[in-house]
Structures are given as structure tokens and as C-alpha cells.
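C-alpha cells incoming
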């Protein structure tokens, strides 16, 4: 049998995008950005891959939404968002992490912001 040594990095970008999309962009960014090589970083920071971010945790039964754990938020706020904030067009946040995430960058292309658990009390803090 003829064996060939095909590596993941030998695949064309189009196939790598398909694979990365199976992870979900937030999971892929968290797990891989800055940890493999420049080519992967370039793919992960592509506008197509970073235009929509759902920075919330949804329960498996879809009945509960919460903020990410601090360790995940720390990685996004300290390194990931500073590299991709200009690409983000659609952002989904939970009110507990909203301020922290919004202060991580200048979301100049943002056209949609979805907020969960944004109560009247929280609105008074930000809008008065």
C-alpha cells in the first residue's frame, strides 16, 4: 500500500475554512489563534470568519444563556478582540460581560448588537 503524508496544513484555505467552521468561529478563535502558525492566524482573522461573534454560553437545552467563564473572557479581551474588532459586524453579548467586551476594541463596522439579560436597571446605568 502506498502511504502519503498529508498534513492538515497541506489543505487549501477553502477546505480549512470548512473545517474551522465546524468548530464554530468563537471556539476556533479561542483554541487556535496564536497557537499554530501565521497561516492559521490569517485564516482565523479573516473578515468572513470574524464578522459574527456570539460571545455567550447557551445551555444544551437552549433554555439558559450566560456569560463565558472569566478564563475565556480573559483570552478574548487580552488578545483576540484586539486583532479582530474592526471585522466584527454582528455581536451577541450577555450583560455581565458587555462592558468588558465592548471596551476591548473599536467596533467600527458593528451593525448589530444583541444583548441578553439587559434589564431596565442595567439600562439606567448605561443610559443616564
Amino acid at each position: 500500500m502506498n502511504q502519503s503524508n498529508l498534513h492538515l496544513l497541506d489543505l487549501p484555505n477553502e477546505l480549512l475554512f470548512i473545517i474551522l467552521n465546524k468548530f464554530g468561529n468563537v471556539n476556533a478563535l479561542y483554541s487556535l489563534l496564536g497557537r499554530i502558525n501565521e497561516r492559521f492566524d490569517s485564516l482565523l482573522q479573516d473578515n468572513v470568519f470574524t464578522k459574527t461573534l456570539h460571545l455567550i454560553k447557551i445551555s444544551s437545552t437552549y433554555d439558559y444563556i450566560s456569560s463565558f467563564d472569566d478564563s475565556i473572557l480573559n483570552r478574548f479581551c487580552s488578545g483576540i478582540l484586539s486583532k479582530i474588532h474592526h471585522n466584527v459586524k454582528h455581536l451577541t453579548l450577555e450583560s455581565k460581560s458587555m462592558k468588558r467586551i465592548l471596551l476591548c476594541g473599536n467596533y467600527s463596522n458593528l451593525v448589530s448588537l444583541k444583548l441578553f439579560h439587559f434589564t431596565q436597571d442595567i439600562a439606567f446605568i448605561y443610559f443616564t
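note: Strands lie at 52-54, 57-58, 65-66, 90-94, 112-116.
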